[in-house]
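[agent] plan:
  1. take the single chain provided in the ticket
  2. run structure prediction with default settings
  3. attach C-alpha cells to the ticket
  4. add a short note for the reviewer (M.T.)
[agent] executing step 1
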Amino acid sequence: QNCSFPSAIPIVDHFAECVEDNTASYSGYDCVVKNKCGYTLHIECPDDYPSTEWNWAGFSGDVLPPFSPEFCQQKCTTTMQEGSEIRTSTTTTTTTAVASEGTGSDCVTDFTATFQAAGYSYGCVVKNVCSNTERVRCPSFPGYYWDFTGVSNYVL
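[agent] step 2 finished; step 3 output follows
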C-alpha cells in the first residue's frame, strides 16, 4: 500500500531573509548589521559563545551584534523568536516608557562621546540597559525613530 506524506515544511533562512550587513559603511568594525524583518530574531552562537543568546527586535537600525564577527560570518543560528509579533511596517502602537528630559530615557544610555573619544565620528551610539521597550527618536533626524526592545548591544 502506498502512503502519502505531506510536503516538507520549507526551512526559512532568517539570516538571508532579514539581515542586512552594513559593515562596509563603518570603518573599524568587524560586523554592523540591521534586522530588516518585522519580527524578533533569536540568535545563538554556541561554538564561540556557549550558553549565550540574543533576541533582536525587528526593523532595527544598524547595530553592533554581541557575537562579532561570527554573526556576520554566519556562524550563528538565526531563527524567528517563538511568539514574536510580526509587524508590517516600522509604525507601531506599542506602549513605551515616557522619556526623561534631556537623555531621552532612563533606559537608553548614550555612548556617542565614548566612541568619538576613540576616534569614531558616529552621530549617535546608544544602548538599551532595561528589559522594556523604549521608543528612540533622534533630534538630528526628525520623524525617524526605532523601538528598542529589551537589553541591547550598541546601536548606531
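[agent] step 4 note for reviewer: The two ends are 61 Å apart (CA to CA).
[agent] ticket updated
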